[in-house]
Amino acid sequence: MENQEIFSMLATYDHEQIVFCNDNATGLKAIIAIHNTVLGPGLGGTRIWNYKNDAEAINDVMRLSRGMTYKAAISGLNLGGAKAVIIGDATKIKTEALMRKFGRFVENLNGKYITAEDVNTTTRDMEYVQMETSHVVGLPESMGGGGDPSPVTAYGVYMGMKASAKNVFGTDSLAGKKIAVQGIGKVGGHLLEFLHKEGAELVIADINENVLSHYASTLGAKVVAGNDIYSQAVDIFAPCALGAILNDANIAQLKCAVIAGAANNQLAEEDVHGPLLIQKGITYAPDFLINAGGLINVYQEHIGYNRETAYRKAEHIYDVTLEILKVSADEKIHTQKAATNLAEKRIQDIAKVRATY
Ligand code: NAD
Fold this sequence. Notes:
- This protein is an alpha/beta fold.
- It has 2 domains: 3-65 and 80-143, Rossmann fold (3-Layer(aba) Sandwich); 150-345, NAD(P)-binding Rossmann-like Domain (Rossmann fold, 3-Layer(aba) Sandwich).
- It is built from 15 helices and 12 strands.
- It has helices at 3-12, 54-74, 90-93, 96-108, 123-130, 150-169, 186-197, 209-219, 248-253, 270-279, 287-290, 293-303, 307-315, 317-331, 335-353; strands at residues 17-23, 28-36, 42-43, 46-49, 80-87, 113-114, 178-182, 201-205, 222-223, 236-239, 258-259, 283-284.
- Strands 1, 2, 3, 4, 5 and 6 form a 6-stranded mixed beta sheet that branches. A 6-stranded parallel beta sheet has the order 9-8-7-10-11-12, with helices on both faces.
- The longest helix is centred in the N-terminal third of the chain and has 21 residues, at 54-74.
- The radius of gyration is 20 Å and the shape is globular.
- 49% of the residues are buried.
- Nicotinamide-adenine-dinucleotide (NAD) is lined by residues 149-150, 153, 182-188, 205-208, 211, 226, 240-242, 262-264, 291, 294.
C-alpha cells in the first residue's frame, strides 16, 4: 500500500494518527488508530483478529476508532476515540510477552491512547498490558478496576429502550410489552433480567441452546429458532448479538415498533437502512448511544472507579435518547444521523472552549 493511500484514508474521516507496531521477537503486529482527541484521550479496546490482509485491518481499526469518538462524545464523556487491532489468530499468537510488548507501544503514546479489552482480548490480557503501561482500563475489580462492563451496558440499553417506548407508546413502562432479544450473552442475559423484573413478555434466540433453556425455565421466556427472531410480532426487538443485521432482508421481516439493542453497528448501511426503518414506521434507538454503558463504566475506571456513578451516568442515556428521537422527528432525519450530528456538535463546541489558553 502506498503512503498516499494511507494519508487519503486518514483524511477521509479526519483521523489524527495511526501507529504501526511491529516486533519480530513476539510476532506482534498491531495498529493503533487515534481518530479524535478534542474531548480527551482516545479510549478504545484492543481487538485480536485474523485479518485477510493489512488493508482490511487498517479499514477496521479506522472505522472502529471513529465509532468510539461518537460514542464518547454523545455520552458526555471527556474522551476521544481510538481503537487498536492486533493481527493474527488469537488462539495461536496470544502470549504474555506479546500483550506486554503491545503495552509498551501503548505506553509510548504517553496517555494519548488508553486501551481496554475487546473481541478476543480479556481482563487477563489487560493485566499483562498493565505491567507495561498505566494507560489501560477494563481491569478486574480486585485490581481496582470496574470488572465486567456488561451489566452497565445492559442497564444503558434498558434506559434507551424505555425512552423509546415512551416516545412510541406514550409510556415507558415495559410491563406486558412483548420483547424479542437476539443473543443472550453477557449483555443480553443482564438485559433479560431487567425486562423480566418489569413484567415484559420475552422471546429469545441464540445459537447457544444451553443459555436458552436456562432463561426459558427461570424467566419463562419463549424460545424461537435462530433467524425466526426477526419475524416475531413484538413491540420491541433488541439485537444483542451481531452487527449489520438491519439489512434489506431482515428489515423486510420485522414486525416490531421499536428496535433497541446492544449490538454494535446494527445498520448494515446507515443512510440506506436508517431511512428504511422510518418508512416501515419503526423507531430505531441508535446503537452507539444506548450501548455506551460499557464505555461509561471504563471511563469511571480512568477517573477513579465508582460503580454507582457508572450506573447514574448510564441512566442519562434515557434523556439523550428522548432528545435524539425528538430531533429526528423535528428535522426529518433518521435517528442514527441525529445522534451523529449531536456527537459532532459537542466536539465542535468543546473545541471552541479549548481554543484559548
Ligand atoms: P457475548 O459474546 O457475550 O454474547 C453474544 C451472544 O450472541 C452469544 O450468546 C452468542 O451465542 C449469540 N449469537 C451469536 N451469533 C448469533 C446469531 N446469529 N443469532 C443469535 N445469537 C447469536 O457478547 P456481549 O458482550 O453480550 O455483546 C453483545 C453485543 O453487544 C456485541 O455486538 C457487542 O459488540 C455489543 N456490545 C457489548 C458491550 C459489553 O459491555 N459487553 C458493550 C457495547 C456493545
